[in-house]
Every structure is written in C-alpha cells, then in structure tokens.
Amino acid sequence: MAICGSTSINMKDATFKNNSVIKTRSILGTVELIFPDNVEVLTTAKTYLGEVQNFKNSKKSRTKVYVESTSILGSTKIK
Length: 79
Description:
Layout: E1 2-3, E2 6-10, E3 20-27, E4 30-34, E5 40-48, E6 51-54, E7 64-72, E8 75-78
Parallel strand pairs: 1-3, 2-4, 3-7, 4-8, 5-7, 6-8
C-alpha cells in the first residue's frame, strides 16, 4: 500500500504458486511490482482518477499471478 508516496517491490527472485493473488492499494501514490520473467501476470483493477499499467510482456506460462489493484488518485505499475 502506498499513501502519498511510492513503494517498489522487486520479486524477480521469488517463486510463485500457480494462481497466486497479490492485492495492492495506492492513494495519491505509486505501487511498483517487478516480477520474474517466467510468470504470466493478469490484472483486475478499480481506479478512481488513477491508473494501472501492466508493462510486463507476459507470455503464456504455467504459472499465473493475479494482481488485484485499487488506485485512488494513484497508480500501480507492473513490470
């Protein structure tokens, strides 16, 4: 969660179970999530004057990670 600021979480070395769920919240701030190349990242979002950007070039993968994001005047960036 980011409130009036930003946070960056690097998960490049993480191992995920299939269908893992990550929930984020940003209010007047930015949450940046960095994923390993071997996962497919899918998003669902609720935005209120905010945005969610998925920059991850996801290829079909056996391991799927779901990001559920809520942004209020903020943003979530997935890389």
